[in-house]
Amino acid sequence: MRKIYAVLLALLLAAVLCTCSSARKAGVYSVEKEGITFTVDTEENTVSDGTNTYHYVISGRSPEYSITITYPNGSTYFWTQKEFGGNHGWSDGYDAERYADGRLLCEVLEEEAPAKSSSRNIRLNLLLGGIGAWNLFSPGTAWYLEYGWRYKDAEPSEAALWTNRAVGVLLLGLAVILFFV
What we know:
Blueprint: H1 2-18, E1 28-33, E2 36-41, E3 46-48, E4 53-61, E5 64-70, E6 76-82, E7 85-90, H2 102-110, H3 113-116, H4 122-137, H5 139-146, H6 158-180
Antiparallel strand pairs: 1-2, 2-3, 3-4, 4-5, 5-6, 6-7
Helix pairs in contact: 1-4, 4-5, 4-6, 5-6
């Protein structure tokens, strides 16, 4: 029986560690702005307007982040978002008439990027939820993994089982709260 619980615990741990290796999904998607269809490639970090391809870098997390766009001629445009506003600027050689406007490209990237780089930690939520569910639905095995293995022929008291259930409810609640915050 102990081997089964050890295997289940190992599987739960492996599932938590293997899920969601990145908060941002890799892929290609399209956004239409001002009559232009832009194609964003999140693997290559590029935006294309059909004529030109622009490279971008997004750093930071929502609500404070920055976007730097590099144009085909090597010039750059940047946008820095703060909690209560933001600012922008560009390097020498930036030409909003020859290439897509930097503000427009930032709007295209903001369709997905800031939401994908949110401050939620999915691994932590899964770990808290898994431990909470374990304590809630199987308080005896949780007690055994915490204390019982230290003693021969030991059994948990009713108070220990209820405490494990209460901790399980609290951890599940915390996981749900952290998921939506």
